[in-house]
Fold each of these.
Amino acid sequence: MGDRTLLNEPADKGDQMEIAPSSTPPKKVNPTSPDGMEAELWRLGNNLVTKFHVLLRISQIYDSKNVALNQFINEFLETINTLIKRNGVLSLKMIKDEFFLNDERLRYSVEGFTSFKYLSTQWKKRVIGEVIFRTLVEEEMLRHFIYAFFNLEEGREENADLLKKELESHQITSIEVTPLEIDESEEDYTLQKEDHREVGKKIFFETIGTIKDVITNIKGNQSADIRKLKRLAQKAIHLVIEDESILLGMTMIKNYDEYTFNHSVNVSIYSLAMGKRLGLSKKILTELGITALLHDIGKSKIPRDVLNKPAPLSSEEWEMMKKHPLMGVEIVLNLKQLGEINPRMVVGVFDHHLMSDLSGYPRLFLRNEVSLFGRIIQIADAYDAMTTPRIYKKIPYTPEQALAVMLREKTVHFDPLLLKILIGLVGIYPLGSLVLLNTHEIGIVYKSNYDPNFLDRPIVLLVDRDAKGDATKQLIDLTDTDEAGNYKWRVTKTLDPQKYHIDIAKYFL
Ligand SMILES: [Fe+2]
Ligand SMILES: [Fe+2]
């Protein structure tokens, strides 16, 4: 499981579930972002941040007159002027590491993470809080602006004024700049929490980038370096031990276009969190993390059109697909750092599709037990695959439906104890479920309750907007009681996010 299934081969259980994921027909995806920001505006805003990032980087290499800059200047101009034309004015503002586009919070896309991070660091260093463009931007203006911005001395509180003066010396008066507002009232506690979240994001996106490199190298028949994967797995373990909910939240970022990389990282996160609850040592957890990251590495040898085929596979294609665990073993054994690999890891790659009753693949004649790594990865793999949209299955199962399916198949296909651990991790209302509360508020399950007595009382993020229309980020704990000792909230039912046009992933970024 975890792979697409051949529709005419029902023997391989898993993806071809009988539960309809939703009785509603597919709808237009995301006419608005969860904050109410229009999708087109969100796209343009993300584009603007990326282009700003690229331009700043390029300006470190070339001087302002260099022709190599032209293309980047033009791309930036096109994006920014489209935005200015739409709204008459464009304000890009940073408050506490978040960017706001004309006062609407701009959540970043998965691909945009590096650019947002870079830009917020550069703004912070230069103590710049807001830039307002009041007229359409011309090429010369932009060149002056970028270089004046870049040349600001780090840490000077007068920078906004200095930048304004520098622009005025070139007769540019339509760009306004204000200093960064520093909010000192934040409590240490939230800062610490936010720090963890930032660390989590960094590990998550770095691991995606690294696994991408590994796969690209293997595809090009070059040997891959897995030492970096090991270091990242170790960092992830630290964080999982500290607070498992942060990385588990990241698994909600289901990137449709980069499925393989996201999937590998997600399977690794679930596996590590399960391994931690099993009490595995850090050394074994590291091995498990690497194995999970590499579990589908054999797929790098399968042609793209077979992997992404929107229709059912032919039997030859399916046979090829079924070879990926074995091909994975071959790749792992050819890695440059074979010293980092031990038999436990090789077997984990080999048997992650075997299933408890050995009905999966590869077919075996002798062994009669699936390894622990194999069993953990299989469960993590199935859960992630079922809850992620794929080209041949655009509407995925909700977390709740996926667990229901797995529970039904537990004795034949999954290790029942490990499945219990997964349910404990993601809760009865799994992480990322959209829920309706008895107060008629809608929320997203943000974190499951660690206490097994309160699996039905998770921490919920309310989907709500303030008076200005911005999304509020209010977390409520369903174990909270009022003065009389009654629970303030309870979940009355789960809802289908598609129906409400809610992109769950964005709430976990
Ligand atoms: Fe997989
Ligand atoms: Fe697989």
Amino acid sequence: MFAERTNWNLAPNRLSEALAAHRAAGKPLLDLTVSNPTQCGFQYDGPAILESLSNPAALTYEPNPKGLESARRAVAGYYAARRDDVSVEDILLTTSTSEAYSYVFRTLCNPGDELLIPQPGYPLLDFLADIQDVRLVRNPLVYFEGDPKAANDHGWRIDFRSLEQAITPRTRGVVVVHPNNPAGNFAKAPEMAKLNDICSAREIAIIADEVFLDFSLEENPRASFATNAGALTFTMSGLSKICGLPQMKAAWLVVSGPPHWKREALARLEVIADTFLSINAPVQLAIPVLLEQRHAFQKQLMSRVRRNLTELDRQLAGQKVCTRLVVEGGWYAILRVPATRPDEDLAMDLLSKKGLYLHPGHFYDFPSDGNLIVSLISSEAIFSQAITELLESLT
Ligand SMILES: Cc1ncc(COP(=O)(O)O)c(C=O)c1O
């Protein structure tokens, strides 16, 4: 009856079953997986947000495949504030970054074509690829444990040797999550240059997911791919993370690169977007106001991330069993723990014995055990208590 692409194993895994039972029993839970910013105690300007959604212009339907120009102008303004010159004509609005991924996959790939993705990485990509009949090929990030003070010698990097080896005649693009979820590494200028060389030489695209771009722990903002000209580039972001407003369902896609490829890509994407015309008028009209919310939101979020990281480091300093990996940006930290058993067994144990819920590394496709992922946007009180409980269990 059904298409093979939907033959997913839909049985809940052990950990989610245990979590559901834990919640059903009403037991207290220290949740270090939170990723929904609207449930983390951040302050939003409710009246401004709600007022922006009741613009009388929404009573008229003005279909535009790329999205309303006023909204695209606001997105161009977002890039201009970062000193990136992006034309409104190169922007398409979508309801989510996921939808933007699907438009790009559809534009680039025939069934069975391949895209390289970073490993570890964002779990939803598997489903997005399945739905579009795309094959994902994992490209490991490598972690260097050099001198912590020498930025170039320490942290996650793209493994270009394996990336080049993984490219086949069916490869249509390389996905870069900038910064990565959960590894937190940005693509550095030399990495961007190398990606351009590889992708332009093979006439394949760069697909850059920048939903966490603004959440950098470094002083200087990291360059966006939105103005990347060295290879055909699709850059995606949206209100979900940038403004902490995932419920608004508003995102965008920027196309850049050599002019002939860019023109062709935009024309094809426009047909896909015109077929769905998916983003609704009230939200498009609200985008200028909603985007402005990012300043207040990002300030609160970054202050929480910094405080939680400081607390994490303070507690880690008192023991030797657990360490944390370098975080350059994003909402997560990776903890290295002894790989004496599968990470999922450890996560199950922490849940049943301590009421502590963390994602095991395999959830983000870590190839080996010994990794736990913690959300840095959890409230400070919960975070601190959860780390204390975790370290007590490990030591
Ligand atoms: C790396 C990454 N990309 C995209 C998304 C989803 O964004 P959207 O809500 O715009 O689909 C997420 C959500 O967690 C994410 O972590």
